[in-house]
Structure formats: C-alpha cells, structure tokens
Design brief:
α4 links the parallel β5 and β6. The chain has 5 helices and 7 strands; from the N terminus they run ββββαααβαβαβ. The strands form 2 sheets. Strands 4-1-7-5-6 form a 5-stranded mixed beta sheet. A two-stranded antiparallel sheet has the order 2-3. It has about 160 residues and is α+β, with helices and mostly antiparallel strands. The structure holds magnesium ion. The site of magnesium ion has 4 residues, from β1 and α1.
C-alpha cells in the first residue's frame, strides 16, 4: 500500500470558467491557469504521482509547454493514471477538500464524485469531496484564490 498527498492553489479572476473535478460550476470568477485550472484534479494528480514515486504534476506537464494550454485536466488525470498503472499501482480510495469562499460547491459534489468514480475506476463510496470556506481569512477567504487538498491510497497491482 502507498499513500499520496497533493495540494494546489490557483488565483481567481473575473471572466474565467470554474471547473472542479471536470464539473463546470456557475461563477463570475474562475482560476487563472495554463490548463483549465481544475485545482481538485491537479491536487489529485500530485497525490497519485507522489504515492507512485513519479514526482509531481509540474515535472509531468511543464507550465511552459504550449501543448497543454487550455487542456482538460481530466485528460491529464488519465495520462497520470496510465503512468501510475505502469509503475505497478492502482487506486483504492481518495479523499479531498476544496477550499473556496464562494460559490458553495455542495450542489455539485455528486457530479464531481461521478466524474472521479469514472476516471479512477472506483465506486462512489471510495471517493470523497468536501467543500470548505476559509471563513473570510487570507486571500482565499477574500475570494482571490481556490485551493484543493487530496489524499489517495494505492495498492500494488
Ligand atoms: Mg494547478
């Protein structure tokens, strides 16, 4: 068994689309990013790569690489999972927390879990997405950033 942990943060800006686990959440602000800025998937990818001894998302997808501009993070996740499997591991469960002052993500959590279930090949019961605000504290609490934390458990194939 291996445990992996991942974290990500993106600045929020007006007029950007907000995706979390591939679900578009109606919002007047969204992440500034080279890709689609899906912080939850980026944290999850880092957790998967970390648990497998494969480094991190920045090594796999250098921000300066033009071919990743605007790319769906679900595609990046599928590529990361292929590397995880090639390294001899498969996921058993994941847990995560998204920190976002607004909007509230609860109405979208089930759809996010459905995407994660499909992408990770796990039952819904093995996946958790929790939403937290930052109680108005710091830049994230002021609505200027979105953060995500993710943990995965892997087993040897
Ligand atoms: Mg990111």
């Amino acid at each position: 068994m291996r445990v992996g942990f991942g974290y990500d943060i993106h600045r929020l800006a007006p007029g950007r689309r907000l995706f979390l686990a591939g679900v578009e959440i109606p919002s007047s602000i969204g992440p500034e990013a080279h890709s689609d800025g899906d912080v939850l998937l980026h944290a999850l990818i880092d957790a998967l790569l970390g648990a497998s001894g494969l480094g991190d998302i920045g090594q796999m997808y250098p921000p300066e690489a033009e071919r990743y501009r605007g790319v769906s993070s679900r595609l990046l996740l599928s590529q990361a999972l292929a590397k995880v499997k090639a390294a001899g591991f498969r996921p058993l469960s994941m847990d995560s927390t998204v920190v976002l002052q607004s909007p509230r993500i609860l109405p979208y959590v089930d759809r996010m879990k459905e995407n994660l279930s499909a992408d990770l090949g796990l039952p819904m019961a093995a996946i958790c997405v929790k939403g937290k605000t930052k109680e108005g504290v710091d830049a994230t609490g002021e609505g200027r950033a979105v953060e995500a934390y993710a943990v995965v458990l892997l087993e040897h194939l």
